[in-house]
Design brief:
alpha/beta, seven-stranded parallel beta sheet, globular, Rossmann fold, single chain, about 40% helix
């Protein structure tokens, strides 16, 4: 790579969304620093570019020195770091607020031209969910440090490695009943590669700073999304719609189990998850989004089957097996 090749640092660049951004930036000809806590677990991103073009590097976003090294000399920075639930080692405040503020401040000090910050749809300082509240607090600090930063707030993302549709499909393989909390809550799932394209556009294009809410073309309730997942997974399961009060009891039990096990048994449901599930996760009317970025979002139907098929009883051969049963 030439010494004049632009450099982008992607914090969390080996994760679900981060790897797509890393791939797109490498294909666009940029040198990509993938800043992660465990570089040895991020080697899968190296083949995204030519030899030496994509390099995982050690960085802890709670450590100023390593964060500064990751940003030094970069032309653009993308912050994909986030957590869905707190652990005894990481809190929402640590990751969504303090780390976001640190990355933005150090990027401004280093003269970074473009900063893209990944937030979440539903971020609101008045939200009951600590996840959503801290996301909004982090967004405000990012814009305070770099007013020209682009903040992307995607709805729940789908893609081969997602933890939304995959988790429902996996649960259907293990149990005849799929419990649902917030079955009527509306979602606007967005394809992970479309969000990555938005990040690339914000870096390489002429995009105004500010907040962009990203949702796909389909809006559906959690109930309908679960039904679609079961259909694609080839499973008939009972969808058991449960009240939030019962969910809070179960979540409290899971949280206590996690604490008692010292974090060895992570909670599969938390009370904060339930607070998020109680609020619709759709793009607000009048907000900037894919249209302003010149991107046409991808429909769920064109992607979901490409990775949910393997949950079927016979995987890719399920259609052939079903057809064979009709032969005399």
């Amino acid at each position: 790579m030439s010494n004049t090749t632009p450099i982008v640092t992607v914090f969390g660049g080996s994760g679900f969304l981060g790897r797509y951004i890393t791939h797109r930036m490498a294909r666009a000809g940029w040198r990509v620093r993938v800043a992660v806590r465990r570089p040895n677990e991020a080697m899968h991103v190296k083949p995204y570019g030519d030899v030496g073009q994509v390099e995982p590097m050690l960085c802890n976003v709670r450590d100023e020195a390593s964060t500064r090294r990751a940003i030094e000399g970069a032309d653009a920075v993308v912050n994909c770091v986030g957590i869905l639930q707190e652990t005894k080692f990481q809190s929402f405040e640590d990751v969504h607020v303090d780390a976001a503020d640190l990355i933005a401040r150090l990027s401004a000090e280093a003269g970074v031209a473009k900063l893209v910050h990944i937030s979440a749809l539903g971020a609101d300082t008045e939200a009951e969910s600590v996840y959503s509240e801290t996301k909004a607090e982090g967004d405000a600090l990012v814009l305070q440090a770099m007013p020209n930063a682009v903040i992307l707030r995607p709805s729940v993302m789908f893609g081969t490695e997602d933890r939304f549709f995959n988790r429902m499909a996996e649960f259907s393989r293990l149990s005849p009943v799929l419990p649902l909390f917030g079955a009527d809550t509306m979602f606007q799932p967005v394809y992970v590669n479309d969000v990555a394209m938005a990040a690339e556009t914000a870096i390489t294009g002429d995009v105004a700073g500010g907040i962009y809410e990203l949702g796909g073309p389909d809006v559906a309730s959690l109930r309908d999304l679960a039904k679609a997942t079961m259909k694609l997974a080839g499973r008939r399961r009972i969808l058991l719609e449960l009240p939030f009060w019962f969910g809070r009891m179960k979540a409290w039990g899971f949280e206590m189990l996690e604490k008692m096990s010292g974090g060895l048994i992570p909670a599969i449901l938390t009370r904060d998850h339930l607070k998020m599930l109680a609020v619709d996760n759709v793009v607000n009317d009048g907000s900037a989004g894919f249209v302003e970025l010149g991107i046409t979002p991808t429909a769920m139907d064109s992607v979901l089957e490409s990775y949910l098929y393997h949950y079927r009883a016979y995987g890719q051969f399920s259609a052939i097996t079903d057809s064979a049963r009709n032969l005399n």
